[in-house]
Amino acid sequence: MIRKAFAGALVATLSLSAASPALAQEAAAKVADPGNNAWMMTSTILVLMMILPGLALFYGGLTRSKNMLSTMTQIGAVACLAMLVWVMWGYGMAFGPEGNAFVSWGKFFLAGVTSDSTAATFSDEVISEYVFISFQMTFAAITAALVLGSTVERMKFSAVMVFALIWLTIVYFPVAHMVWAGGGLFFEMGALDFAGGTVVHINAGVSALVAALMLGRRRGYPAEPMPPHSLTLTMVGTGLLWVGWFGFNAGSELEADGTAGLAMINTFVATASAALFWMLTERAMGHKGSALGFCSGVVAGLVAVTPAAGNVGVFGAVVLGAVASVVCFFAVSKLKPRMGYDDALDAFGIHGIGGMIGAVGTGILHDPLFGGPGDGSVSIGSQTLVQVQAVAVTILWAAAGTAIALTVARFVTGLRVTPEVEYDGLDIGEHGERAYN
Amino acid sequence: MKFIIAVIKPFKLDEVREALSSLGVAGMTVTEVKGFGRQKGQTEIYRGAEYSTNMLPKVKIEVATSDALALQVVEAIQQVARTEAIGDGKIFVLDLVSATRIRTGETGDIAL
């Protein structure tokens, strides 16, 4: 298990201690490989591109024109908040030196981290700890922003900020610890999550559903048409997301090696498969193949391949993309209207559902029987069971944490904008400016 | 004099203009408009969710003609703008009381 190797190594992250000169000397001997460091710095910036401008344009284009700036501003501001919280207590709660199965502690305010500190990768290589911290920071930032896809066009800006602060603390950091840190609950179970299918997508998707239910529908939904105001910008955002996702997926190997290459090619083909299968599903359902269908398929494929990126073979990724795309289509076009929740931009329908397909599918397709890179030491059945357990725990954790975070945000800010602001649009009502003049 | 208002499918505009020019119509006013008739709009589908759009884009042509030419203009528009599909549009004919060319002050048929 590639993740097993990571377990001990990360806990043993090297640190320079003034009290122990001998240890310091030994630690200084292990320096980050510049090639790996360079790739991880590149990956980190690619993930930033997924947020601003990627997700901001993708989500912004899907809203009505009167809420374009509000949507983009919420994403940007929440990402910034997440970055600051990450360096204050997020990194310590997710990857601190001390901890249990659910959360860690230590290294708050990056105590003890210097330019010489290193973080372990999956081999005996190390990367600079600042680079690792930055890379993981972008994950926290985009995940918090993803949740907002279900709540746009009606939630106060102040409520968004309060919610994000609490949600990151009680939902994101613990789940990141459980999945990726040595000693974490899912980590020890042997759950496979290459680049955050559980941490990012199921986590954000389920939180989005709970938030949409607690917040209530937008005024006029579903009787009044609320079509996207600019599919052009959504398409631009989709492209930026796809490019940035290579940092997300291929970067999650933490080294520029062959597994990163596998994650890269899988990020191509799963996405390509999903984009076309969404449009094929539209045709099969008697509609036209649409641009939004294409964009939705791209994102569904990217979401599904996230946990699988370095964990399945190339044709496993093709299948995974296709299956996730078809299931997500029915989630957003049939399940959502039937259940009546207003997941405005389908954060649950695509990230939540796609993440679950990806996480469970990884358990199956990891096996060499399906061309996966697994060694066959764990049976498909037991690996899939572990994946399902990790998904189930994440769903419960995210749902409960979101309910708490939103309740606090409601108490502090009132949560929803007034009917007048909602009618006029949040751009003018919450920010005092218009996207288009 | 007659004032003819025709609401047609936008892609038929060029053909209608050519037809009317060949009849000797000297000018027209064209406006992009939205509306609905028996067609009752169209359906757009986003991620599988259907939205019916009540108003469809059309082009409105306004032409002032002499009484002698009016019938031919109506017939020409009716034939050229016709696709036999729903939503081809309508033609309205109104009596025109007066017309004045601003540059010269001419009035009546000669001002058209």
TrEMBL record, chain A:
Q: How does this protein sit in the membrane?
A: Multi-pass membrane protein
Domain Ammonium transporter AmtB-like: start-end pairs: 38-436
Which family does the record assign? Answer: Belongs to the ammonia transporter channel (TC 1.A.11.2) family.
Q: What is this protein called?
A: Ammonium transporter
Q: Which NCBIfam families match?
A: amt
Residue ranges of the TM segments: 40-62, 74-94, 130-148, 160-182, 194-216, 228-248, 260-279, 291-308, 314-332, 344-365, 385-409
Q: Which Pfam families match?
A: Ammonium_transp
Give the UniProt keywords, A-Z: Ammonia transport, Membrane, Signal, Transmembrane, Transmembrane helix, Transport
> Any signal peptide, and if so, which residues?
1-24
Q: Where in the cell?
A: Cell membrane; Membrane
Please report the organism this UniProt entry assigns to the protein: Tsuneonella deserti
Q: Tell me which domain of life the UniProt entry assigns to the organism this sequence originates from.
A: Bacteria
| Chief site of localization | membrane
Automatic annotation (TrEMBL), chain B:
Which keywords are on file for this protein?
A: Nucleotide-binding, Phosphoprotein, Transcription, Transcription regulation
Q: Which PROSITE patterns has this protein been placed in?
A: PII_GLNB_CTER (PS00638), PII_GLNB_DOM (PS51343), PII_GLNB_UMP (PS00496)
Recorded hits in Gene3D superfamilies, A to Z, give: 3.30.70.120
Q: Which Pfam families match?
A: P-II (PF00543)
Keyword Lipid metabolism included in the entry's annotation? no
- Subunit record text: Homotrimer.
Task: Return the similarity comment.
Answer: Belongs to the P(II) protein family.
The UniProt entry, under InterPro entries, shows: N-reg_PII (IPR002187), N-reg_PII-like_a/b (IPR011322), N-reg_PII/ATP_PRibTrfase_C (IPR015867), N-reg_PII_CS (IPR017918), N-reg_PII_urydylation_site (IPR002332)
Annotated protein name in UniProt? Nitrogen regulatory protein P-II
Top-level division of the source organism's lineage: Bacteria
